[in-house]
UniProtKB/TrEMBL annotation:
<dbReference type="InterPro" id="IPR036380">
    <property type="entry name" value="Isochorismatase-like_sf"/>
</dbReference>
<dbReference type="Pfam" id="PF00857">
    <property type="entry name" value="Isochorismatase"/>
</dbReference>
<dbReference type="InterPro" id="IPR000868">
    <property type="entry name" value="Isochorismatase-like_dom"/>
</dbReference>
<dbReference type="InterPro" id="IPR052347">
    <property type="entry name" value="Isochorismatase_Nicotinamidase"/>
</dbReference>
<protein>
    <recommendedName>
        <fullName>nicotinamidase</fullName>
        <ecNumber>3.5.1.19</ecNumber>
    </recommendedName>
</protein>
<comment type="pathway">
    <text>Cofactor biosynthesis; nicotinate biosynthesis; nicotinate from nicotinamide: step 1/1.</text>
</comment>
<keyword id="KW-0479">Metal-binding</keyword>
<keyword id="KW-0378">Hydrolase</keyword>
<comment type="similarity">
    <text>Belongs to the isochorismatase family.</text>
</comment>
<feature type="domain" description="Isochorismatase-like">
    <location>
        <begin position="9"/>
        <end position="204"/>
    </location>
</feature>
<keyword id="KW-0662">Pyridine nucleotide biosynthesis</keyword>
């Protein structure tokens, strides 16, 4: 069991329409995270949501590279970049949060991927691995010491965010029943292995206790 304490925060990564089944870049079973994420949010003193928020001509979109198709890789100024279908375009329905997600509980919404020239998987560092989002400083200002991660997708934005959070000095826990992955050639298990190697704890929502409670979350 993991008991919540002062200095804990929940970071829900990219629970957005375009990453749900039927979206532009769907994560299989992605809509299944909404219920667990809502239950988790109800127990945390601090909640942060991230939101992919791309301009329509973002450099990671295959549509911006004539002759290229989604999921091919190209070289951008900062290195290799997977090309994606257009997704989470600013102010589009697909960029909105998942229906039913209790966004009212969020004290902070961080929008990432807003720079046309640079992709952004991590909630802390953009894909050039130099540009900071400012989240680490904001969390420190709020005296956060331990982060519980959930959301989409395990093998992309969740794992990048988790590893960068460790590098920033936070204790990190990933809630495994509140994440889903794309799973390209075993990429989910590879992401989980990388997180374990980095000292990140893996748990389930039912094993998390609210401060002062003696029963797990439902």
């Amino acid at each position: 069991m993991t008991r919540l304490r002062d200095g804990d925060a929940l970071l829900a990564v990219d629970v957005q329409v375009d990453f749900l089944p039927g979206g532009r870049l769907p994560v299989p079973d992605g809509d299944a995270v909404v219920g667990p994420v809502n239950r988790l949010m109800a127990g945390f003193p601090q909640v942060v949501l991230t939101q992919d928020w791309h301009p329509a001509d973002h450099a990671s979109f295959a549509s911006q590279h004539p002759g290229r198709a989604p999921f091919e890789t190209v070289e951008l100024g900062y290195g290799p970049q997977v090309l994606w279908p257009d997704h989470c375009v600013q102010s589009s329905p697909g960029a909105g949060f998942a229906p039913g997600l209790d966004t009212a509980r969020a004290g902070l919404v961080l929008r990432k991927g807003t720079n046309r020239e640079v992709d952004s998987y991590s909630a802390f560092l953009e894909a050039d691995r130099r540009t900071r989002t400012g989240l680490a400083g904001c969390l420190r200002e709020r005296r956060v010491r331990r982060l519980f991660l959930c959301g989409l997708a395990t093998d992309f934005c969740v794992v990048w965010s988790a590893l960068d959070a460790v590098a920033e000095g936070f204790e990190v826990v990933v809630v495994t029943d509140a994440v889903r992955g794309i799973d390209l050639d075993g990429s989910v298990e590879a992401a989980l292995a990388r997180m374990r190697e980095a000292g990140i704890a893996l748990t389930e929502s039912g094993a998390i206790l609210r401060s002062g409670d003696h029963t797990a979350m439902p």
